[in-house]
Amino acid sequence: MQVERVGSDQRDGGFIHALDVKEWLITASHNAAALTQLVRRILRQPHAQKTGVAALDECYVVTHHADTANVVAAITSGLEADGLADLVQEIRIADPEGGEDGQGPRAIQRRPTFAKTEIYLPEVLRVEDDSVRKLDYEQDILFALDWSGLDPAPLVAKIPANFQSPEQQMRRIRLVDSGEERIVSEVTGSTGERLAFDPAYAVRMVSDIVPNAWIAREIVGALVAGLQRRGFAGETLGKLHGLLIEQLRKWLDGERDRMAEAHFRKEVAAGRIQFRLRTDRHNWAMPADSVTYEPQGADQMLGTDGGPLQRSLFSPIYKNDLGKIDEREVAVYLDAENSLLWWHRNVARHQYVLQGWRRERIYPDFIFAVQPGNQYGKGKRLVVMETKGDHLAGNTDTEYKQAVLDLMTQAFQIDQTQRVGELSIVNPDGTTVECDLVLMSEWKTKLPTKFPD
User: Fold this and answer.
1) C-alpha dihedral, 33 to 75 to 101 to 314, nearest 10°
2) What does the DSSP assignment read for 123-178?
3) CA trace torsion 189, 194, 200, 202 (10° rounding)
4) How far is 379 from 372, CA to CA, in rounded Å?
5) Closest by Cα among 338, 339, 441 to 398
6) How far apart (Å, rounded) are the C-alpha atoms in residues 299 and 443?
7) For the chain, which terminus, N or C, has the lower number of CB atoms within 10 Å?
8) What is the pLDDT of residue 280?
């Protein structure tokens, strides 16, 4: 913010004074929608990278005279609406005295019944000869894609011939001492600049999608050649450079996902990408304790009988650890199910994770175990469940996660039926694993199907 006056005797309303700016900022801090938008923009900064320094890797919202609960609720709602609900668990409210939630993170232990129980879940692994390791997106998916021979003809056909080129003007902006408008903008002429399409620049702009610069240059060259055959001259391509790069990125992004999914499924079928429990400890182990930022004495979740929850793997469970009302309802339902052994609210970015054919990883919301001796077999049944709000139904992220979870369930079942007897299978009791995605409007009808009739 730029101010024009700072002296205590210079605040006459005719110029921007430092105190005017201060009052405006304080007023803006009451606008929860503006704060939510600010947080979303910070989180979406392109090419942002973590520094490894916790204080620098956080987004801070400082408000004056604002209702903290309302601000947090607005930010939480905004994140959930944008499909960033996993980040809700990361919101921390600073104590007025300078502490964070009074105490900061603290451990929650397992219930005594499960204190010594070893709980394992299968991970998505890359298996090649004697090498077994976690699947790495860049190494095993992105760099394995064959971009050579990719024909941008579909993109060439989509570029409109009757485009509107952006207006090129020279404008002068100045302040005036009189009149209703103190800031005046005037057109002083056109730039006269001749734009040219720069293939090298286009290659740099897609380097995060196509790792090989030589192949990227071939794709860009084929795009330009195709447009020239359609009659786009050099000057026209120059005026179109912004649109071309934007559309090229979108097209390449879609092609990458298409090829990545095909490659992932082929590797699963060949056994080089596996989702199974193993005797060599290449599994995800449930930790002995979980983490909460809630202080001692915070409100706990209550069951259907009005008492504390009884079947959660960790105890106690605080209300704010389950940020959304729908999630709380799911937790209460699970806790009341007699055939359930235990349930756990997975901590996003810290606990169980699944890697699919996209860079973004999947952090399921709930993990629970159904008692042995049900219609699914003699062994216990582990269910990994992701939940989504109805407003996200049908979008590309939801459909992608559903496809990955379905494939992982099928892959585990294939291992159970076709690879029994191999050392890599831990299946003495017939344990099965199911991965699923449930819309919040459907959980009351879909969740009961996870349990015995």
Assistant:
1) 160
2) EEEEEETTEEEE--IIIIIGGG---TT---HHHHHHS-TT--PPP--EEEEEE-SS
3) 60
4) 5
5) 441
6) 25
7) C
8) 72
Domains annotated for the chain, with CATH where assigned, are 18-103 (no CATH), 108-119+286-450 (3.40.1350), 140-268 (no CATH)
Coil, strand, or helix at residue 279?
A: coil
Q: Give the single-character DSSP code of 17.
A: B
CA distances from 166 to 157, 159, 192, 197, 236 (A): 21, 16, 13, 15, 12
Query: Which residues, 6+ apart, have CB-to-CB distance to 263 below 8 Å?
Result: 141, 144, 145, 357
Query: CA-to-CA distance for 36 and 43, rounded, in angstroms?
Result: 11
CA separation for the pair 246, 243 (Å, rounded): 5
- Return the pLDDT at 249: 93
**Predicted pLDDT of residue 104:** 62
Tokens encoding 396: 């590309």
Q: Which of 440, 366, 338 is nearest to 398 (CA)?
A: 440
Q: Which amino acid is at 356?
A: G
Q: How far is CA 102 from the centre of its chain?
A: 29
Strand partners, 131: 128
**191-215 as b/e, with b when 16 or more CB fall inside 10 Å?**
eeeebebeeeebbebbeebbeeeeb
pLDDT of residue 252: 95
Per-residue pLDDT at 98: 45
Q: How far is CA 99 from CA 82, 290, 300, 327, 332, in A?
A: 30, 21, 22, 28, 32
Nearest to 124 by CA among 449, 324, 429, 358: 358
Closest CA to 32 of 70, 60, 61, 59: 70
| Sign of the CA dihedral running 383, 387, 393, 399 | negative
Is residue 166 a contact partner of residue 234, using CB atoms and an 8 Å limit?
no
Measured from the Cβ of residue 334, the count of other Cβ atoms closer than 10 Å reads 23
pLDDT of residue 428: 44
Please provide the DSSP assignment of 64-109 as one string.
SS--HHHHHHHHHHHHHHTT-GGGGGG---B-TTS-BTTT--EEEE
Which run of H or of E encompasses 381? Answer: strand 381-388
What angle do the packed helices 241-270 and 213-229 form, to 10 degrees?
130
List of the chain residues with pLDDT < 70: 1-18, 20-47, 61-104, 164-171, 187-195, 372-379, 390-394, 413-430, 453
